[in-house]
Amino acid sequence: NLQNVPENQKNLALLVQERDSNRRIYEELLLRHSQSEVSKQMEIGDKAATFRIVDAAFLPKIPISPNLLMYVFLSIAVGLGSGFAVVFILDNSSNNLNSLDQLQRFDIPILSVIPSIENPAQIQRVERLDTLVYLATAVYFAGLLGILLLETYKGMF
């Protein structure tokens, strides 16, 4: 009996290999069968469905996103709002007295007031600087307006 053990093991290995091969073939056939059933159901479903074009598809002439015009208006609004907020906060957080009226509200007797001495050269320099700032602001906003008009013009056509 011991002499037949290697031959029996060899036969067992062949049978196991044949079993695994048959199992693999069975699983592949089962998969193909399920795929064919799905294809068959889809084919039957397509025959029952009717298609109709409601509206033809078209490509837009202008990009839908990003909306640059909205972003420019939004950035202008945010910039102006934050600028006003910073000025308001800085003005209200100051502990300095800037006018005689602010001091009179506290019912403190005023002994004297130091007059401001005006220097015509300094006043002219400040006016020139103010004019340059106003001019730069006007050029900046004219550029923004030009960009807005250009974007609006592109959006129309």
SSE topology:
Elements (H helix, E strand, L loop, with lengths): L4 H44 L19 H25 L7 H5 L15 H37 L1
Helix pairs in contact: 2-4
Description:
The chain is mainly alpha-helical and 157 residues long. The chain is 71% helix and 0% strand. It is built from four helices and no strands. The longest helix is centred in the N-terminal third of the chain and has 44 residues, at 5-48.
Task: List the total number of helices.
Answer: 4
Distance between the termini: 97 Å
Percent of residues in beta strands: under 5%
Shape: elongated
Order of helices and strands: HHHH
Q: Which structural class best describes the helix and strand composition?
A: mainly alpha
| Mean pLDDT over all positions | 83
| Sheet with most strands | none
What is the helix content? Answer: over 70%
Quaternary organisation: single chain
* Gyration radius, rounded: 44 Å
E-strand count: 0
pLDDT < 50 runs, ≥5 residues: none
Considering the chains and any ligands shown, give keywords for the structure.
71% helix, mainly alpha, 4 helices
Question: What is the gist of this entry?
Answer:
With 157 residues, this protein is mostly helical.
